């Protein structure tokens, strides 16, 4: 996954370098701004992937909460087996 993020970041770097180069900027300014674009693209992708990964973990853990072991905490008694002192 990091390889894909890096490659997309490099694509953004070179596209922005071409764009800033056509604007007539000095070479150092062009490279610095393109590097800032590269860092921004990689960070945005990392945040998106972390959010997606946390959403998938939440969906997987939600159905596991209601288990039969937890619901059956007290023994079940049948209502007909208990007799009261008054006749019905």
Can you count the helices?
3
Major pleated sheet: none
Provide the succession of SSEs. HHH
Rounded mean pLDDT score: 81
Secondary structure: helix percent: 55-70%
Give the overall shape, derived from the CA principal axes: rod-shaped
- Which stretches are low in confidence, meaning pLDDT under 50 for 5 or more residues running? none
- Strand segment count: 0
What is the structural class?
mainly alpha
How much of the residues is beta strand, in percent? under 5%
Termini gap:
72 Å
From the alpha-carbon coordinates, what is the Rg to the nearest angstrom? 31 Å
Task: Provide a short characterization of the protein structure.
With 88 residues, the protein is mainly alpha-helical. Helix content is 68%, strand content 0%.
Model description:
The structure is a single chain. This protein is mostly helical and 88 residues long. It is built from three helices and no strands. The longest helix is centred in the middle third of the chain and has 35 residues, at 27-61. The chain is rod-shaped.
């Amino acid at each position: 996954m990091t390889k894909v993020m890096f490659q997309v970041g490099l694509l953004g770097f070179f596209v922005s370098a071409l764009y800033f180069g056509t604007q007539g900027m000095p070479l150092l300014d062009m490279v610095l701004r393109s590097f800032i674009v590269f860092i921004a693209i990689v960070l945005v992708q990392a945040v998106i992937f972390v959010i997606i990964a946390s959403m998938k973990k939440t969906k997987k853990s939600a159905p596991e909460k209601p288990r039969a072991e937890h619901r059956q905490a007290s023994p079940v008694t049948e209502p007909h087996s208990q007799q009261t002192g008054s006749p019905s």
